[in-house]
User: What shape does this take?
Amino acid sequence: MNLLLVWLLNALALLAVAYFVPGIQVAGFAAALVAALVIGLMNMLVRPVLVLLTLPITVLTLGLFILVINGVLFYVVGYWLEGFEVKSIMAGIFGALLYSIFTWALSSLLVNNKTNEMN
Assistant: This one.
């Protein structure tokens, strides 16, 4: 149940990102659900490999290159999916940063409160 709630919150965060970042468009809530799922899978499967391969650059930039990796993954998901569009890498970087902030805020507000109420 908790995983489903987090998935829905991520889709809502993606809709909010599309509202705030001009270069990102989401066709609707169904497209946001699919995009949130694919972004989660990319972050789980592809991102660790990219972070490992770009470790020297990441160390030299004091970790800021991870923002570029996140932005590129966001852009790639926008390229693959219909209904979710990211127009440029910079929009992907800003979108990924804002998406991380929104998902963190929503998850910390709602998911932790739900688990505290159950105990």
Notes: The chain has a mean pLDDT of 91.
